């Protein structure tokens, strides 16, 4: 019944948007304005938003006169709000990405409302930067935008003017760049230069001077001077199935501090994760600094200062890559080919439970929404041994921090 309702509602959207689509087709035949208006849509949370940042510099370089607007969820706005390539930032509480319940009709009510607002802004190009986000494709269609770029995936494809074939198991940033390149071609401009690689299109997020000064104060109060190597562990993540064992973090932290006695450890997380940080910190000597009340920029300043960052598959690890800091990260249900580090391969080590856990053949399954009572049946991350983490951390510290 729910599937049939969606089909009916999407058909209603298609019919309602036909007059605008016809007008948009005529507009696409007109000469491109001197300052083309470009809309980028990305509904995701912190990590995915960090992996979107390379397209902003690329667009600004290829279309320096463009007026670039980015529409993001309020939960990730801080990642791109300061980016110099963006002229306007719009926030939208995208359906399906809010961590609250919603009615079956709410996505369509919001779709109509936001499309009406966008129609008044007369965009020349819109790019749906999430490959499976049908709502974003429908939004571009209802807004009457003449060039609408996305992947040819149902049910989004009928709403697009430029639908790219979707090739699975590519990196998330690769997809962002491929769509952006197609958007440039839709405008009659040259495509992005290949290859789509981190050295050509790096992640970008720059902490401010004030954020770096805040960090310096925090470190000084903890007795950490500018010559001390800082190790950061960010153990939390949005999906419980991706968590490692608290006791394993404790043992690995102690092993590293014993190996590098002049280093200091910082544990980071959200306010909701403070209890987990305390549990990990209890057995670590010397006691680590706990920071769970930080802005994104303050966290980035810490990650930039760090010699090494360890964690599971989470947004802050991508933020660390944007700071040029080596990382060690644990993967289980998510695919590192898609969500792994977008940075120099020799500076980042991914440890997958598939390598260390032959009893978990289903990974990467891509599923994160396990109920609490199901988690014990999916221990793919929890079974990664401490030794693997410690060896990877030592490899990076010896290579980049112990010359």
From TrEMBL:
GO molecular function: ADP-heptose-lipopolysaccharide heptosyltransferase activity
InterPro entries for this protein: Glyco_trans_9, LPS_LOS_Heptosyltrfase
Biological processes annotated in GO: lipopolysaccharide core region biosynthetic process
Keywords: Glycosyltransferase, Transferase
Keyword Iron-sulfur applies: no
Ribosomal protein listed as a keyword: no
GO cellular component terms attached to this protein's record: cytosol
This protein's name: Heptosyltransferase-2
Organism: Thermosporothrix hazakensis
């Amino acid at each position: 019944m729910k599937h049939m309702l969606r089909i009916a509602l999407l058909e209603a959207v298609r019919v309602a948007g036909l007059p605008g689509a016809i007008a948009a087709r005529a507009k696409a035949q007109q000469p491109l304005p001197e300052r083309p208006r470009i809309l980028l849509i990305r509904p995701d949370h912190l990590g995915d938003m960090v992996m979107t940042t390379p397209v902003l510099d690329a667009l600004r370089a290829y279309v320096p006169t463009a007026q670039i607007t980015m529409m993001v969820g309020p939960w990730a706005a801080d990642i791109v709000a300061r980016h110099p390539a963006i002229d306007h930032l719009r926030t939208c509480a995208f359906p399906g990405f809010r961590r609250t319940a919603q009615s079956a009709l709410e996505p369509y009510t919001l779709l109509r409302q936001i499309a009406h607002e966008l129609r008044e802004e007369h965009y020349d190009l819109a790019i749906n930067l999430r490959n499976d986000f049908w709502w974003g494709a429908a939004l571009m269609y209802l807004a009457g935008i003449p060039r609408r770029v996305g992947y040819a995936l149902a049910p989004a494809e009928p709403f697009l003017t430029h639908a790219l074939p979707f090739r699975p198991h590519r990196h998330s940033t690769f997809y962002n760049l491929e769509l952006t390149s197609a958007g440039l071609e839709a405008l009659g401009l040259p495509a992005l230069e290949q290859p789509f690689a981190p050295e050509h299109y790096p992640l970008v997020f720059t902490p401010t001077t004030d954020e770096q000064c805040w960090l310096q104060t925090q470190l000084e109060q903890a007795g950490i001077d500018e010559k001390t190597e800082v190790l950061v562990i960010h153990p939390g993540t949005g999906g419980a199935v991706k968590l490692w064992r608290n006791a394993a973090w404790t043992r690995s932290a102690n092993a590293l501090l014993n190996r590098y006695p002049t280093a200091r450890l910082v544990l980071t997380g959200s306010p909701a994760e403070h209890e987990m940080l305390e549990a990990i910190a209890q057995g670590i000597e010397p006691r680590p600094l706990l920071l769970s009340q930080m802005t994104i920029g303050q966290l980035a300043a810490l990650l930039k200062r760090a010699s090494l960052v360890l964690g599971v598959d989470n947004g802050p690890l991508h933020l660390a890559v944007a700071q040029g800091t080596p990382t060690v990260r644990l993967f289980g249900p998510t695919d590192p080919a898609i969500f792994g580090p977008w940075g120099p391969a020799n500076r980042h080590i991914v440890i997958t439970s598939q390598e260390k856990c032959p009893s978990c053949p289903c990974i990467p399954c891509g599923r994160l929404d396990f109920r609490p009572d199901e988690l014990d049946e999916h221990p793919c991350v929890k079974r990664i041994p401490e030794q693997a983490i410690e060896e990877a951390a030592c490899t990076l510290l010896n290579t980049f921090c112990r010359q």
